Amino acid sequence: MVNIGNFKPIQLLDFVGAIEDEIGAKTVKNLLPKQAGDVIKTWEDNTLLENLTGYIPSTNVRGQC
Fold first, then answer.
1. Cα 18 from Cα 6, distance rounded (Å)
2. How far is Cα 7 from Cα 49, in angstroms, rounded to an integer?
C-alpha cells in the first residue's frame, strides 16, 4: 500500500466543505466532543511513493497546485 497526499494536513471540516462544493450539496453534520482514539493531527508521508516512482504529488484538497 502506498500513501498518497501532499504533506499538508487540513482540517476535517475543510475537507468536508471541499466535498460539499464538488457535489453541490451541504451535508448534515453531527458534531460530537472529541472521542477516545481521535487523532489531533495526521498527514501522509510520500516517501515510499517517491522512492518507487519518483513522483511527488502537489495537488491540494480543492484540486489546485
1. 16
2. 13
CA distance 35 to 52: 36
**Residue 12 grid cell:** 476535517
Range of the domain at 10: 1-23+42-65
Amino acid at 45: D
Whether the Cβ atoms of residue 35 and residue 48 lie closer than 8 Å to each other: no
Domains contained in the chain, number: 1
**Sign, Cα dihedral of 27, 29, 34, 37:** negative
C-alpha cell at 37: 482514539
pLDDT in tens, 3-62: 777 777 788 888 899 999 999 999 999 999 999 998 887 777 888 999 999 988 877 777
